Amino acid sequence: MSERDRPVTLRACRLWVSGRVQGVYFRAHTASRAAELGIVGYARNLPDGRVEVLAGGSPAAIDAFLPWVRRGPPQAVVTDVTVQEEAVEAVAGYRDFARC
Fold it and tell me: For this structure, is 27 an active site residue?
């Protein structure tokens, strides 16, 4: 079986990011990093000051994305990230990464 013929394995997770993550371009930087890695989903501000991220992509892409989210962009101060694995169907309708 060639690399091209192998089934694509996907991973999806939902993240809740706490700290100084609103008003510091966290969603814009997250969308940019997700696009670089080929990740689909969204980042949106929550009323309680956190940012929710839904991310889906290859396991390698998600593995590269998670440490970045834990640091965030230079202006952010990430104090906690809660990760919940999701069924890949959670990102089935997404073709890119959106800032909501």
Answer: yes
Contact between 35 and 96 under an 8 Å Cβ cutoff? The reply is yes
Query: Structural domain boundaries of the chain?
Result: 25-91
Candidates 11, 14, 20, 27; catalytic one: 27
68 residue type, one letter:
W
Could you report the per-residue pLDDT of 1-12, keeping only the tens digit for each?
445 555 568 999
By mean pLDDT, which of 3-17, 29-43, 80-94 is the weakest? 3-17
Among 6, 11, 14, 45, which one carries the catalytic annotation? 45
- Predicted structure pTM score: 0.90
45 is catalytic: yes
* CATH dotted code for 25-91: 3.30.70.100
